[in-house]
TrEMBL record:
Keyword Hydrolase listed: yes
Stated name of the protein: Alpha/beta fold hydrolase
Keyword Hydrolase: yes
GO molecular function: hydrolase activity
InterPro entries named among the record's database cross-references: AB_hydrolase_4_sf (IPR050960), AB_hydrolase_fold (IPR029058), ABHD4 (IPR012020), Hydrolase_4 (IPR022742)
Pfam families the record matches: Hydrolase_4
Segments forming a coiled coil: none
Family note: Belongs to the AB hydrolase superfamily. AB hydrolase 4 family.
Domain Serine aminopeptidase S33 residues, every copy: 62-273
Length: 326
């Protein structure tokens, strides 16, 4: 019954609510001491992914690789990704932070982009890395949207997951996308909603310029929430009939019972993005593989500590390296 009974996370005293715990690390954290080597991975459909590697020095050989998946409209340069990469390197793992289609600093080639239920690209990245024959152990980590993709990948078809994948750890995951999309649209969350929509609208404009006549820009500026945006753009661009059909397919909550790899899911109770349905206590209570930890605080992809460290990084390394997961 992997329900983590007690979380040891305590936020800094000045980050006294979920909004501060979300915003302060996002805006003011820097992680300068991570150096990436970029690789462009060409895909069978004619598109590409940009992969950012952080490998240990040659004098510290490793057979373990950790793959980090970022959040919605994020990328490998975000502080929470770089911080996790640094922590993984310090723990003795090579790390690979991959950028989703359109997120690596250059627009992808196809009309489609990425979505929160697309596990094919994660599988391609993982198999590409394992094909180097350098790694006998692999670990998957994800934040928010990347956590949703990771959980769905692990649970939708356990037989597809390579045997090298030993454990996973994900944070701040909207396991119920429909409920989450409504939750973040509440008035108190408009600062986040506006920021996401600003980035998403620009990408739609870029797609329209890249694909003349194929993208309808009418009404773009009037969209005010995720259901509206996903119904008009995300769903049809990726083969779904509606936003609801997309949410139903992509929500990782429906796949959790299929996970067969020890997996840590940490969702803060004061996360402004997550409604009650994103705390799958019943599934975790019945699964020997899904370890659910629900600290009272942490915000969304926050988890800063008073000593300047980050609980998400410390907890992930602890879980991935423990003799017995938990």
């Amino acid at each position: 019954m992997p329900l983590v009974a007690h979380s040891h996370y305590q936020p800094p005293f000045y980050q006294f609510n979920g909004h501060l715990q979300t915003i302060v690390p996002s805006l003011w954290r820097t992680v300068p001491d991570v150096t990436y080597q970029r690789e462009r991975l060409e895909l069978p459909d004619g598109d590409f992914l940009d992969l950012d590697w952080s490998r240990l020095p040659e004098m510290r050989p490793t057979d373990g690789l950790a793959i980090v998946s970022h959040g919605l409209e994020g990328d490998a340069s975000r502080p929470y990704v770089r911080g996790m990469v640094r922590a993984l390197n310090q723990a003795g793992f090579d790390a690979l932070a991959w950028n989703y289609r359109s997120c690596g600093g250059e627009m992808n080639r196809l009309l489609r982009s990425y979505h929160l239920g697309d596990t094919e690209d994660l599988d391609t990245v993982l198999r590409h890395a394992l094909a180097t024959d350098r790694y006998h152990r692999a670990y998957l980590l994800g934040f928010s949207a990347g956590g949703n993709v990771t959980l769905k990948y692990l649970g939708e078809d356990a037989n597809r997951v390579p045997g090298e994948v030993e454990r996973a750890a994900v944070f701040s995951v909207p396991t119920d996308l429909r409920a989450s999309s409504m939750h973040i649209g509440r008035p108190q969350n408009q600062v986040y909603m506006r920021r996401f929509l600003k980035s998403l609208r620009q990408k739609i404009r870029d797609k329209a310029a890249q694909n003349p006549g194929e993208v309808d820009l009418e009404g773009l500026e009037a969209l005010r929430n995720f259901p509206q945006f996903d119904d008009k753009y995300t769903a049809p661009m990726h083969g779904f009939d509606s936003a609801d059909a997309y949410y139903q397919y992509a929500s990782s909550g429906r796949y959790l019972s299929g996970i067969r790899v020890p997996t840590l899911l940490v969702n803060a109770q004061n996360d402004p993005f997550l409604p009650a349905s994103c705390f799958p206590r019943e599934v975790a209570a019945q699964s020997p593989y899904v370890f659910l930890e629900t600290p009272a605080a942490g915000g969304h992809v926050g988890f800063a500590e008073s000593n300047g460290e980050y609980y998400s990084e410390r907890r992930a390394v602890e879980f991935l390296t423990a003799e017995v997961p938990g």
